[in-house]
Records
---
Amino acid sequence: MQTTNVTRVLVWSHWLRVSHWLIAIPTIGLLITGFLMNRQLLPATDIHDIHYILSAFLLPGLLIRLYLLFFGKGTELLSDCEPDRHRISQAWQVIKFYLTLGKAPLPKWFSHNPLWGPIYLAFFFFLSLSVISGFALLNEYSIISGLSMTDLHHITYQIIAWYSLLHVVAVFTHDLGGSSSDISGMINGHRIFEIKESEKQTSQAIELDDLLKTLKD
């Protein structure tokens, strides 16, 4: 009888997790304060101050993540988010999982979701534009090279808001529909993988290279 074994692997480095939460938490706060500023629901001075403080936490998180994309290692690198033939086929399986409301099985992947990996890169791009336009407005540069910083900031706000909503829904959906503990993985750095008995080298552990091979089955 074939049995399934579980192995726990460190996937996300310390600095990647730090940058993730330095981006995620301030971004939610910035979206809320931005909405309140636009609707003028609270005193403008108080909301502006909170908005600027949150941006001060977001900036180092974004800079760390951008540094890791180009100068990090392993799953931190930009190449880990880039699509290839295998990831594109897996991305289609993720889409089918969404279209069937979780009835179709999710593919196995090691680090970044094959569908969301390229979307993360786009998110970092628009978040960078939002930061640039925000600091331009803070320093009273309303137009740069004929481009309205107010319009740019508003457009990137909407893109980031929709991304954040869909990202949270997707992560919870993956955690419910899969078995790799995606949510806790971004806290402790580890993901859980199921390995078939025939793929297991010993009763205690499996080599990481062998694990990576099984994820392409």
Note: The radius of gyration is 20 Å.
---
Amino acid sequence: MKKVIPHTHFIAAIILSSVLASIGLIGGLGIQLVRQDILAFLPLLIALPAMNAIAGDYATLTAAHLADPESNKKHIQKLIVALFTTLPVSCIGVSALSLGIAQFKGFEITGELAVEYIKLVFITLYVVVFLIFCFIYLTKKALLTLDVNIDDTLIPVANTIASVVMLTGFAIMTTHFA
């Protein structure tokens, strides 16, 4: 059994979190490039905080479970099933609420537009969650070779990557509606 490194490097973990928050600005740059398009399509603007929160939550849950020294192949398979069976609820919720709020605010939504928007929300979130899972899995493997506590490192790194990937995916999604 792999030894577990105690939580003794709090200052290093806080510095890492600060550096990672700065890296998170990269996603903001992508949004800056498409800001006019986002403003033109109100449902995207409404959905942005929720989609970013979903990506961060899935990253945190994934990192917490994968960082567990007891995680094995069966545990990881259960995690994958849980992630990808709960994701449709999040996608439907974000889509329905953002379209509903936009329509309430006077944004005209056709059936075709709604279907296309919902498809893009699904595709974006599924791709983001898949990429985050792969990144976390590979990062865990790399961190196991170092003498660091995986919990203190993997979770903040996963959250930052989730934000950057989600905001980049969101910027790409926005160009579709431009």
Note: The mean pLDDT is 78.
---
Amino acid sequence: MIKVLSVQNFTIFTKRENFKFAEAFNVVIGENASGKSHLLKLAYTLAAISREAAATIPGKADFERMIGRKLLRIFRPKTLGRLVHRGANEADVSIGFTQKACSYDFSFTSRSRSDVKLHRPPDAFLSASAVFLPTREILSLWPGFESLYQRHDMGFDATYFDLARALKTSPLPDATVEKFQRPLQRLEELVGGCLHLESGRFLLQTGKEESLEIDLVAEGIRKLATLGRLIRNGSIHRGSLLFWDEPETNLNPRLIRPLAEILMELSQQGVQIFLATHSLFLLRELEILSQHERYRELPQHYITFSLKGGEVSVSQGERIEEAEPIVSLDESLEQSDRYLEME
């Protein structure tokens, strides 16, 4: 689990920001270009790198190269130095895990092409997996995506490639994912079935002998089916980390409401969740659920970003009302005032 992520002069973040995270549920809120996706992608990159390193136990120099390559593949700058805030000479990044031995610090300069400098190397690496769901669904792109990505520049960052590989993993027996049966069942009820991989293509299996080509399925449903597949094949498990950038995209509010509770249930079963959202509807659903007896003691953390004079202002708290301002709420209230003026 990630406890804290500290950055200075990384992309839009100029002054040192210490982002705290709850072990269960975390939500990042803010307007466009305020750094929501950058925060999620950075946290995912550092967790995913640690997980990948666990297979080889690299030395310091090799781990530095792994960090640099992963940052380039996730953020897609021309050089690593382009991730340093304009006008600054160096970016500093530090990540702290609940497993203290996995924590590490590094920096890189504005002249760096792909190299970083480790200041505190990790003494151990994560055993849990990290999954990132980008804004755009990938099931319709999946046929041949992995091999094409490795041979050509397709204009997609590595979160799509990582997700494609995770989706390829075969489903586990029901007994193995028993603790996740309730959220999994609800997901499959919402989408009307579960994903089935056949001849290099995903189908939505709606019955024993019936299935739909994934391109015939609505995009919002494809996103929910993706989450179900990742639970079924064990990519999402107790202790894993789930990052989701704007889960509300292409989802009707009627689907957002049950999705909010499904995500709460996953975090209750030991999945650390990180969401970035613009949706006031989703925020309100999460606030309603957080007052429910079942989720009241669930550790939560909210981070809001607002832009002031080109700089990001950060607010954090354990409840939504402690992390203000919420731009989507302010704009919704202002719109209501304008609407009432019409009468």
Note: The first strand starts at residue 2 and ends at 8.
---
Amino acid sequence: MVEPHLGRGESPQVRTPVIVATMLGLLALLTVVAFGLALFFPQRIGVRFVPRHSFPLPAVIPDERAQRMGLEARQRRELSGADGRLPIEQAMHDIAARGPHAFDTVKQ
């Protein structure tokens, strides 16, 4: 015997007024959000176009190669131990000499 309410529409557990109330609540919430956005952005209401601003042209550096060469020379000097710095080769050797404890906290 087939139950008379099965396969013929809604299940008796579905409460139509709850669903309708939920949908009306969501519609009201979306309406409030839409009008709320109008309160926060009043200058944008009714605007159909935005003025176009062009990007600035790229800056031209006439001596870019000389600038790069100077930067590389300064970096080489710093890595080789200029201004009282530890040379990179010595620093790498010191770290490798510590073995598995190379990255432990430094004791002072």
Note: The chain has a mean pLDDT of 86.
